[in-house]
Amino acid sequence: MLLGIDIGTTHTKVGVYAKDGRLLSHRQAPTPLITGADGLSYFALAGIWETATALLRQATQEAAGIVEGVAVASMGEAGVTLDANGEPTYPVIPWYDARASAQMAALSTLAAPVPPGESPIFIAQFRGAAPPINDPQASGAFLDVTPEHRPEHMARAVYEGVAFEVRAGLELFEQVTATPISVVRMVGGGSLDPLWPRIRAAVLQRPLEIARYPDMVTLGAALLAGLGAGIYHSPQQAVTVTYQPRQHFYPDPAWLKRYAPLYPRYLAGAQSLRHWRRKLE
Q1: What DSSP designation does 92 have?
Q2: Under a CB-based contact definition with an 8 Å cutoff, are residues 75 and 8 in contact?
Q3: Beta strand 23-30 with 11-17: parallel, antiparallel or unpaired?
Q4: Spans in the chain with pLDDT lower than 70
Q5: What count of other Cβ atoms lies within 10 Å of the Cβ of residue 115?
Q6: How far is it, in rounded angstroms, from Cα 208 to Cα 163?
Q7: What CATH architecture applies to the domain 2-73?
Q8: How many CA atoms lie within 13 A of 214 on its CB side?
Q9: pLDDT score, position 97
Q10: What pLDDT was estimated at residue 163?
Q11: b/e map 66-77, b = 16+ CB within 10 Å
Q12: What is the rounded CA–CA span in Å between residue 10 and residue 102?
């Protein structure tokens, strides 16, 4: 069996998998977080170690087999300095603060009733523009806001704006690789939100698959361990043997029609906003 560990900002997770990708055991616990007097958040390295080892013991005892490979994954890795004795000199500073799960659920509930195309345009570039733009100075905004727009319209705009930004990156990837992408696979906590996949399928104009397990990071780490142990001959074989979709979403024809003219408006609005910002500098 293969073991994957995910040291996440909000949770630490351990998954034990069979060679065919079946989940044998899964454990997770909150990653120990310390909030200082300055209001900032930190991770204590000892707490992370204790949490991870406890989860490892629980998961491997339940799976009751021989572990042939182990790999560790993380999102937005954070570093820590050590002294001459190997002890941390300062708490780990997380790369971002992602404690907004309750707010995200409320956002979904608020946005769901709003029909597509009736919200402002949300430029999802608050921390710069990622590829294909690559502009660290880019900023976000809500465009075309009218007095008729209420909080639920703003919430819906956030969903749609992020989807438009994903489409821009997806289209660039197809251009660079000269490989068309026929289906998009969605993983992580966002895949549990019933609104996210519907909007993305319509905006991306492609079928969307939800992976069979929300936590695919530990499985990905386990597959890397399997590659290192010689269980799989290639990354493609590892994915082919283990991947299974849990749910399919297809673009809603009515939503496709509403989003088709909005995407070029999103790109034009984002470009105009970047030009405007440069003029102010």
Answers
A1: B
A2: yes
A3: antiparallel
A4: 36-41, 75-78, 93-102, 132
A5: 11
A6: 13
A7: 2-Layer Sandwich (3.30)
A8: 9
A9: 47
A10: 96
A11: ebbbbbebeeee
A12: 13
Q: DSSP character for 246? A: E
What is residue 99's predicted lDDT score, i.e. its pLDDT? 46
* DSSP for residue 19: T
Give 90's DSSP letter: S
> Which CATH architecture best describes the domain 101-207+250-280?
2-Layer Sandwich (3.30)
Nearest-CA neighbor of 112 among 166, 143, 151, 162? 151
What tokens appear for 50 in the block? 């204790």
Indicate the pTM of the whole model: 0.74
List CB contacts of 154: < 8 A, sequence separation 6 or more. 119, 120, 122, 142
pLDDT of residue 79: 72
Helices (H), the chain: 45-63, 101-111, 151-177, 195-204, 217-228, 235-242, 253-259, 262-280
Every domain of the chain with CATH number 3.30.420.40 lies at 2-73, 101-207+250-280
Q: CA 198, CA 207: separation in Å to the nearest integer?
A: 10
* pLDDT at residue 98 in the model: 45
Q: Residue 279, Cβ neighbours under 10 Å: how many? A: 6
C-alpha 139/C-alpha 276 separation (Å) is: 10
Closest by alpha carbon to 143, among 124, 171, 165, 170?
A: 124
